[in-house]
């Protein structure tokens, strides 16, 4: 795996530079790279194979020329027709699969492939079907890593599974964000919701470090914080779902948080107010994340179905399992960091 | 041996329908409808007694008629008719329930009590789990309005169940009841020409069809079927969930988003203009939404709703007529645009 990574490196900077110059505003970039589909599809065969969605259809259609575009427009109109008449389904948690697959993922995909050039390893550790709990490290000041994790599993997993991320309650208090979050299939990080999702056979993603992880200063990058109270282990044990440790490298450097304005945080009622070299000094420009090179590695699943039912109430076992997961992620992080050549390539 | 059923709140459409339905039950001997105002609809030959449940006369009615099943449906979010005020509704909900329960406690013939409650007891807050079960404690107790009434009513019912353990008590927490003649606050909301919404929030809503509501009340009021239990607290909702935006599109009514702090003003403006009761708890429902788990309803109560939430909503939408932007028109417009394209023609 580590060796295979070397090959695309020679070509990477050019694509990256192009992508970086493509536009600095988030919205501009999101709209522009939607069109040129065939190039990345050939570059990353595994990604294209996992897609199976509209992108691949577009890639195959491209040589046909105008016909492909008309097909796309017709597909778009069909989609629009369903949306404006409300003829689509959402699940009990508000997950709108159609919107996620067709719109949000196509917006996230350029970020994943062109901007952060996310390299996904060990995707086979996520089961084809049945429940699993992905436990990942959390970093980056804004929860971009959660979105990238979701996009990575969606695009690279052979079954195209959607990770149901568990989000902090702050997410559900903010307008627009809570709406999008629910439609993407996220739900509140609480034992009840996590358990229900696991019982329904979903892949659930959790970042147990929470605000301690995402809002830690730049000097403490890649040092895992306390994993909450280990509630995620309890939930996984109750549902008998395997725990898949996941290490994300690259997210720490997107917004290097060199300071934290407690006064502003208290005024705004948020857990931390980041000060980065660019934010808030450059205004909205400071919101542009640095184009770091990411690696998402999924580790060997830790089975939890071998324990007796009363194990979920054994605090010692909880702590041990929590530590095991935490150590695995921390070791993988160090290993990936050693392999990494530079932050940006 | 025939049963004597007393139903409160029969002046409302749902109460009237329930009286007519329960009369057809083979083991029911007599049905007595009670309300403070005479109903405008017929009760299918059931006796109507004009009695205000806020007054102790209700105790005499129970004793004289030897009632054995009480179905308490007079717990409502909206006043009956245009002239009722919120204060009267609250008094009927809370004081009425207290009086009725006091009377039931004094009447030894009462063997079964069914209370129409609401999922409003859970409140709606961003910190709540996405799906409420019957045992989920609300994170923030409703501070006022109908939701608080319901919390208090359920508190009294629990007290009653403790004092009269021989009475089978069934509390049915209904999600938003919709149907051709439902008069719930949400039904009124959806009949506005333009739906005010909260900017940046798209709540998840669940509905129960009127027919299902009647049916589940009948199950609660009768003897439990084999391997089911009809005493306890149950969430009642149709399967599936509709988002508010989706509901508005299916209904063909445009939405008008308001920034959260200004919604309260809009709500009170609408209320004072007499359009509808846009209470704070209603606004919270339209901000954060509410979804309940219905496993208990299926497995323990043995009730399977005939309508899913989207179907119940569809039936309601059909009864209300098209809105300003009927989905059929929009679909036709898109089809026409699609037909202009060569590829679109090929696909159709």
From TrEMBL, chain A:
Keywords: Acyltransferase, Transferase. The keyword Transferase applies. One of its GO terms (cellular component) is membrane. One of its GO terms (molecular function) is acyltransferase activity. Residues 1-67 are annotated as: Disordered. Residues 132-251 form the Phospholipid/glycerol acyltransferase domain. Residues 26-53 have a biased composition (Low complexity). Pfam families: Acyltransferase. Residues 54-67 have a biased composition (Gly residues). This is Acyltransferase family protein.
Automatic annotation (TrEMBL), chain B:
Residues 5-185 form the NAD-dependent epimerase/dehydratase domain. InterPro entries: Epimerase_deHydtase, Lipid_A_modif_metabolic_enz, NAD(P)-bd_dom_sf. Pfam families: Epimerase (PF01370). It comes from the Bacteria. Gene3D superfamilies: NAD(P)-binding Rossmann-like Domain. Signal peptide: none annotated. This is NAD-dependent epimerase/dehydratase family protein. It comes from Streptomyces triculaminicus.
